[in-house]
């Protein structure tokens, strides 16, 4: 079975060491002080405007509805930036982002999370500064640059001023996120035989991650299997076959590794 072979590949290539985190592009780090006051905006864009890849909390699959990532998310969630000029589009995502940060703060009392929570309570106050501090867009030859306009799609993280690590990299914060991910994955469900790993484990309660780099696929990632309508349910079941969190992570990470670019151009893949 191909999923079992992908699981074996993921284990050989040590792709499953920490499934609560993944490499993601990050464009900006909002630096704040211990009281949550804005200090500066750190850009991680290179000279071509490409974001730096960092290890960050795993991004949830947003198949339906509003689902926030933890501490590193787009500016619609993290900064309440309106998309298409409609502020109402950002209110619910921002509330979801705040709720997850609040949950972590209540459990850990981490100083970094306390600062982020304080910033989020007054985020609108700082938007003028954030706009002014964002790198200007380069103008045409001989023309001045233009002020950066936030779109809601920028990926943003948070860090305390003077720290080399982001808040999501703090050990206490990372330990909480791993614990929460494990608890959500277990979900109190019964143990079933995972079709991928062959082990007894609760089935994954989350949508499986998307495969990146699929030729002619969606730029944000392509779902290998999508079951989001009654027509796709089997024998009265409202979910997919029994696949554990480890099994789901394994086949996606293995496929992403195979499709990952190892040079310039689409032909420079490990497998094609």
- Assess the beta-strand content as a share of residues: 5-15%
Low-pLDDT sequence parts: none
Q: Major beta sheet, specifics?
A: 4 strands, mixed
Number of helices: 7
Helix content: 25-40%
Question: Can you walk me through this structure?
Answer:
This protein starts with a helix and ends in a 13-residue tail after the last helix. By secondary structure, it is of the alpha+beta class. The chain is built from 7 helices and 8 strands, in the order H-E-E-E-E-E-H-H-H-H-E-H-E-E-H. The chain has helices spanning 2-12, 75-78, 88-108, 111-121, 127-133, 171-186, 245-259; strands at residues 21-26, 28-32, 38-43, 52-57, 73-74, 155-160, 191-193, 200-202.
Give the key terms.
272 residues, alpha+beta, four-stranded mixed sheet, two-stranded antiparallel ribbon, 8 strands
Can you give me a brief rundown of this structure?
The protein is an alpha+beta fold. 31% of the residues lie in helices and 14% in strands.
Helix-strand blueprint:
Elements: H1 2-12, E1 21-26, E2 28-32, E3 38-43, E4 52-57, E5 73-74, H2 75-78, H3 88-108, H4 111-121, H5 127-133, E6 155-160, H6 171-186, E7 191-193, E8 200-202, H7 245-259
Parallel strand pairs: 2-6
Antiparallel strand pairs: 1-4, 2-3, 5-6, 7-8
């Amino acid at each position: 079975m191909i999923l079992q072979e992908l699981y074996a590949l993921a284990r050989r290539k040590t792709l499953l060491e920490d499934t609560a985190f993944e490499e993601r592009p990050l464009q900006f780090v909002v630096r704040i002080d211990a009281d949550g006051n804005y200090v500066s905006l750190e850009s991680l864009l290179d000279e071509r405007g490409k974001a730096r890849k960092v290890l960050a909390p795993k991004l949830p699959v947003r198949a339906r509805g509003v689902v926030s990532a933890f501490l590193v998310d787009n500016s619609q969630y993290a900064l309440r930036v309106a998309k298409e000029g409609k502020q109402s589009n950002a209110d619910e995502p921002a509330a979801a982002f705040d709720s997850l940060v609040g949950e972590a703060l209540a459990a850990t009392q981490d100083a970094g999370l306390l600062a982020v929570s304080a910033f989020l309570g007054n985020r609108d106050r700082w938007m003028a500064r954030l706009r002014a501090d964002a790198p200007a867009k380069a103008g045409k030859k001989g023309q001045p640059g233009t002020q950066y306009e936030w779109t809601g799609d920028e990926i943003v993280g948070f860090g305390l001023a003077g720290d080399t690590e982001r808040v999501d990299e703090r050990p206490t914060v990372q330990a909480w996120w791993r614990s929460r991910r494990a608890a959500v994955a277990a979900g109190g469900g019964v143990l079933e035989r995972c079709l991928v790993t062959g082990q007894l484990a609760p089935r994954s309660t989350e949508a499986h991650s998307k495969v990146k780099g699929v030729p002619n696929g969606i730029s944000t990632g392509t779902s290998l299997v999508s079951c989001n309508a009654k027509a796709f349910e089997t024998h009265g079941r409202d979910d997919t076959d029994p696949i554990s969190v480890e099994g789901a992570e394994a086949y996606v990470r293995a496929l992403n590794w195979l499709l990952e670019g190892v040079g310039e151009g689409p032909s420079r893949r490990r497998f094609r």
